[in-house]
Amino acid sequence: MASLGKFLQRVALGVGVATAMVLSASVAGAKTTFVFANSSAYDSLDPHTVFDVGRVASRLNLYDGLLRWLDNPAKLENWLAESYQISKDGKTYTFKLRKGAKFHDGSEIEAADVVYSMERILALGKGAAGLFKGSVEKGSTKAVDKLTVEFHLTKPSAIFLASVPEIHIVNADLVKKNTKGDDWGQAWLSKNDAGSGSYKLTRYDPAKGFQAERFAGHFMPWGKKYFDVIDFRTVVEINSRVLGLMKGDFQGTDGYLPQDQVKRLKAAKDITVQEQESMRIFYAAIHNGRSPMSDINFRKALSYAFDYDGFINNILSGSVARNPVPLPNNIWGAPKGVKGYSYDLDKAKSYLAKVKEPMREITIGALTGYGQTEQAASMLQVALGKIGVKAKVLSEPWPVVSAKMRDEKQMYDMLFLWKSTYYADPNNWVGEMYDCDQIGQRNNSWYCNKEVSKLLDEAQVTTSQEVRAKNYAKAAEMVMNDAAGIFVYNTKWYGPFNSKVKGVRFCPIGNGQEMRWAYYE
Amino acid sequence: MRTLVLIVNRLAWLIPTLLGLMVITFIISHVIPADPIAYLAGENATNEQIAAIKQKFGLDQPVYVQFYRYLLSVVQGDMGISLYTQRPISEDLLSRLPATLELTFVTVIVSAMVGIPLGVISAIGRNSWLDHVLRIFTVSGLAIAGFWLAILLQLLFAMRLGWTPLQGRIEGWGPEVVTGFFLIDSLIAGDFEMFWSAVRHMMLPVATLSFPAMATIVRFTRAGVLDAVNSNYVLYEQAMGLPRRVIVWKYVLRNALVGTVTQIGLIFGILISNAVVVEAVFDWPGLGLYAVSSILQSDYNAIMGFTLVTGFLFIIINLLVDIVHGAIDPRGTG
User: Fold this and answer.
1) Can you tell me whether residue B188 is helix, strand or coil?
2) Which of A194, A431, A216 is nearest to A327 (CA)?
3) Is B159 touching A (CB cutoff 8 A)?
């Protein structure tokens, strides 16, 4: 009987040990998956046709560039490029690629792939192509040797380097193999992966999103902890994204949620909301080329009629930072100590009295589906009513707005919108928004001040950082003094994640969606 | 023979109907002052780049030329490519259509299976407490906004009770696509766990869509049954001594269903349009969301493709309804 007891004890011990081994093995073998709920649909994965912030995750996780923007304030770091040199005349940029860096299919990344990627961007004319227009001509990029590539610019461009991260390198051989006619492989690349990024595409459904697994062979060493699988899904409804995060269906979602939802998430269990000042300014573009806005007194009246504090503190619960100039507060070159305009209807009236142009009803544009633009427009409409200016609010969807913005006759008298970060250089804001050369394209205010343009043009070609910073600061202040627009705030990013998610590195360009550093605690 | 004539007649009308639909949709989508190419090319694009892309897609041509070209390609079975994804529209639509159809079919089946018996019970017990309860139910079904109901159901069943998933179509990425209907594909794969996951994910969206659909079916069935119950043939059957159960469920219901079946055909169309809201709330990757994003982006070919497919489906469903109508109407088969 005693021996039977011992036998049963041993069996029980053996079963216990075996179970523990199986369990530990399965835990060790279990893949960690991070699911992110995104508001925009991943309707295409082609890194050269898509350039919006909403779909940045596919570009940053599946593809690499020669350089990369990292952290906040954004710093430009070497990425696929080991080093680079700029010629004395500022027209030739030579990049040396890392040796042994590989695409997801195992083939080596070569200078020819960089050349092909640049040519593809220029040929398609979509996405980031506008950044290179006028500075990089088709056929001008050369592979000097297997790992050296040269960009020959038509003129010196101080912003070229800042645009380089947008040249996502695609596997030229793979894309060429899947090209149909003159489509540069667009149909194929819209749903396939030809990159070398930290994650490798495993599943894609345009209606659902994409899933990618860790690319162990990535040239950048991995940390001790990481996500094995990342899953970026489209969840259009804000409420569904928030509830899904609270329930544990998702581990992260976008950082620009309305404040009521941010408060809800802050109060929820197992959710951490990370806070960072981003580089996304909210402003009203004023049509400076049309009467009565062409009169500086009228524009000043408009600027004094907007209740900045009321909007920021009451409507946005103080969740953003007042930003009085057309440059985010936290970028180099932003003028320091500028107070900007304040809500003062008496001053607004006094400026209005100086207006010589005949008065008429003005149209304030807003973006349908973007409540803040509509709220700001309504707020200004009410204030203008108090000083005797009739105004109507016209809210329209973005494709309609973006078409009207480029047409002098169709452009609204005023339009509330944001200017996002495409590259962390002051030129992204004041340089594009108020240069005379950009009128009707990126300058949608029909504002032209020769003195401002001179400062901006000089800043675009000089390689002296000191001169650039000084010029941009001066230009931003001059634009503000001219009341060329109403500059309201700089956005803060409130990134909600499951509390177990650690290591998220926020950068204004990537909105914290490059996942190679993140992991579960 | 009568049915065959009906089918031929309806199919003959299919082409001019679709053509009319195409003309209207094409004009509406093109006269909106939107510029999809400016949107596609992005904020940083120059005017020259936008003009070049417009030329490439033929959008620099007059609207009637664009329509003629589109019509030619549709006749050849090509619905064009999406301005944004560069993929064929047919490919994009086919990847989403099964999700919406599966949701719609299950909703119609559930609504009919529950709504018809409730309609009959309501009519038989006219002005009883049950009839009053069902009246409140049906009026609520027709009055309550879909998105509000959807969020309430999510909060109660997914968040508080934890009985159902919050959103999505299935756990993970779903079974190997054969038909695109996850209920069928999971059974084909022999994966019952996945089948159950698909059923569970379907519960809340189907409940949201079924509520108003069921309400309509209950009201129409009730009215039909009340109308039929007072007929002379029912009096005759009662005089013949037939059991009430047989009279109601065999003879009265058949007559009463004529109007209900017509409604079910119309409900199908309404469900497809209501699916837009439900798909958004429940993150259901169907045609509704595709249509919304296509409209917001002014992706002309996608808008046309969606309209053509849903229009075609609506016509076919109504043809089927007419055939069923003819089959169940005792006056037609007498």
Assistant:
1) helix
2) A431
3) yes
Q: Which amino acid is at B30?
A: H
ipTM over 0.85: no
Which parts of A8-162 are beta strand (E)? Answer: 33-38, 67-70, 75-78, 81-86, 92-97, 142-145, 148-152
CB–CB contact B86 A127 (8 Å): no
The better pLDDT of the pair A197, B177 is held by: A197
CA–CA distances in Å: residue A89 to residues A153, A219, A462: 10, 32, 10
Q: Provide the β-strand partners of residue A520.
A: A501
Output the CA torsion B189→A105→A37→A42 (10° steps): -90
For tokens 């179970």, name the residue: A19
Only one residue has tokens 């709920």, namely: A37
DSSP string, A352-363: HHT--SPP--EE
Which phi-psi region, left, alpha or beta, contains residue A96 (left: φ > 0; alpha: ψ -120 to 50)? beta
- CA of A290 to nearest chain B CA: how many angstroms apart? 21
- Name the nearest CA neighbour of A243 among B317, B167, B319, B145: B167
What residues of chain B lie within 8 A of the CB of A125, using their CB? Answer: 41, 45, 49, 52-53
Give the three-state DSSP class for B316: helix
Residue A19, pLDDT score: 46
Rg of chain A (C-alpha set)? 26
Q: What is the pLDDT of residue A18?
A: 46
Give the distance from residue B181's alpha carbon to the nearest chain A alpha carbon, in angstroms: 15
**Band of residue B40 on the pLDDT scale cut at 50, 70, 90:** confident
Q: How far is B95 from chain A (nearest CA, A)?
A: 8
Measured from the Cβ of residue B24, the count of other Cβ atoms closer than 10 Å reads 11
| Upper half-sphere CA count for residue A57 (Cβ side, 13 Å) | 28
- Please list the residues that pair with A152 across neighbouring strands: A92
Contact A421, A494 (CB under 8 A): no
- Show residues of chain A in contact with B159, CB under 8 Å: 243, 246-247
Q: Check CB contact under 8 Å for B88 and A187.
A: yes
* Region label for A90, one of left (φ > 0), alpha (ψ between -120 and 50) or beta (otherwise): left
CA dihedral B6→B11→B15→B16, nearest 10 degrees, is 0
Q: Write down the mean pLDDT value for chain B.
A: 87
Pairing of β A33-38 and β A229-234:
parallel
Q: Which helix (H) or strand (E) holds A217?
A: none
| Least Cα separation, residue B109 to chain A (angstroms) | 25
| Chain B environment of A265 (Cβ under 8 Å) | none
State the virtual CA torsion across A46, A52, A54, A58 in degrees, nearest 10.
30
Q: Show which of residues 34-73 on chain B sit within 8 Å of chain A, judged by CB atoms.
A: 34-36, 38-50, 52-53
What local confidence, expressed as pLDDT, does residue A151 receive?
Answer: 97
Nearest to B44 among A131, A237, A243 (CB): A131
User: pLDDT value at position A258?
Assistant: 85
Taking residues B192-213, what's their average pLDDT? 94
For residues A67-93, b (16+ Cβ closer than 10 Å) or e, as one string? bbbbebebebeebbbeebebeeebbeb
Give the DSSP letter string of B32-63: SS--HHHHHH-TT--HHHHHHHHHHHTTTS-H
**Mutual angle of helices B2-31 and B63-75, in 10-degree steps:** 140
From A203, A208, A397, residue closest to B296, measured CB to CB = A397
Q: How far is A329 from chain B (nearest CA, A)?
A: 22
Please give the C-alpha separations between residue B278 and each of A370, B130, B230, B265, in angstroms, as whole numbers.
21, 30, 40, 20
Tell me whether B9 touches chain A (CB under 8 Å).
no
Q: Which residues of chain A have pLDDT under 50?
A: 1-4, 7-8, 11, 14-15, 17-28
Contact criterion met (CB below 8 Å) for A75 and A172: no
